[in-house]
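An example makes the point: we let one protein speak, the chain in one-letter code, the fold tokenised, and here it is:
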Amino acid sequence: MTDIVQLLQHHRSIRKFTDQPVAQDRLEAYIQAGQAAATSSFIQATTVIQISAGATRDQLAEWAGGQAYVSTSPVFLVFCADMRRHQLACDLHQAEMLSGYTEQFMTATIDVALFAQNVVACAEADGLGICYIGGLRNNPDKVSSALELPELVYPVFGLCLGYPDQNPEVKPRLPLSVVLKQDRYDDSADADLIRDYDTGVRRYYETRTGGNKSMTWSEQISGMLKKEARPHMLPFLQQRGFLKR
């Protein structure tokens, strides 16, 4: 139990990988562990697409914002929320499928996140490093077209996997008392705690970048949230058959 806690608490994003290949049988074991994750009402709404090195991978790297490690990581996976198979299940029983509900979108997306985190835990326990790639949602229509995703399927994020060729520090997380509440929501002390936390985050960035980046957590979040956050996602998801009601 101690080993599991330490493993999870020492997660880092890895963006540089060695050339050592990841054995396919190990990768498939990680995917099977992902399948064992909790799944809402047994919907099993995750599809994973393994992308070989080459032109498609390079396109995905470009569409994700020019993240080169999408091209160079030994393994790159695209995790999709998939309700297409539920349409097939309804077809098998000549049942009309009532789709487009917000709850369905939420449960399918949550399923993907739980599945992926099991994969990540297994990979990191095997000595691999990972990096989630949310940047695929910069161009979800292009990604969907390239991967031939049908209606009721959308790309949630990508995942780079490989043996680390760097050893970054663990990024400090928020104080536990900001995250863990007792019996009710009480954030009366959180502002002061976040100010103290900001000091540690600034120190982390300055150390990691050799002084090239000096930013607190609250500065980063406030800067991010005063900008639009992929407003194209709602019409894209509605075109895919999600979030219609």
Observations:
- The chain has two domains: 2-168+228-240, 176-214.
- The domain at 2-168+228-240 is CATH 3.40.109.10 (NADH Oxidase).
- The chain has a mean pLDDT of 97.
